[in-house]
Amino acid sequence: MSERKERPLLFLDVYGPLLPFGDGPQREPSGTATDSHLTRLDPRVGLRLAALPCELVWATTWEEEANTDIAPRLGLPPLPVVTWPETSDAHEREDKWFGLHWKTRALVAWADGRPFVWVDDEVTDADRDWVSTHHPAPALLHHIASSRGLTNEDFAVLDQWLRAT
């Protein structure tokens, strides 16, 4: 009997990768965007994301609203959603000390040893270092320039990494 290999995960943030901050409306403080802001979503990005050899997962403060407000506009089905746990005081102090993003620990826990890509405009070298030390499988933390969102070059990097994993 052959063992079924699970596809890598792709943790996807909304602001920056899908909703660039370039010219026009900026981030809404409430964590959601106005409908006019959502018109900036490019449905071609959804097709390209769906074509990647991975399991897409929302990793955004939008949480379930990403499935109701974002996914249909991108032509994506409802995706699994990372829900953000409360962080202990000790982890908050340690994360601040090491310069970790507040999502880093939760994504490593959610991946549970599976290979993953994290696409976000706030990923740093501190996050990459921490993940390489605390996650047993391959991981690509891919920074997206928030002013431009996902580009052809980003998709080429993601596709190549995912196919090699």
What's the helix and strand layout?
Elements: E1 9-12, H1 35-38, H2 43-51, E2 55-58, H3 65-74, H4 89-98, H5 104-111, E3 116-120, H6 125-134, E4 139-143, H7 152-164
Dominant shape = globular
Q: How is the quaternary structure best described?
A: single chain
> In terms of structural class, how would the helical and strand content be classed?
alpha/beta
- Helices and strands, in order, run as EHHEHHHEHEH
The end-to-end span amounts to 22 Å
Number of helices: 7
**Mean pLDDT over the residues:** 88
Proportion of beta-strand residues: 5-15%
Describe what this molecule looks like in 3D.
The longest helix is centred in the C-terminal third of the chain and has 13 residues, at 152-164. The radius of gyration is 16 Å and the shape is globular. The chain contains 7 helices and 4 strands; from the N terminus they run βααβαααβαβα. Strand 3, helix 6 (125-134) and strand 4 form a beta-alpha-beta unit. Mean pLDDT is 88; it is low at 24-33. By secondary structure, it is α/β, with parallel strands linked by helices. A 4-stranded parallel beta sheet has the order 2-1-3-4, with helices on both faces.
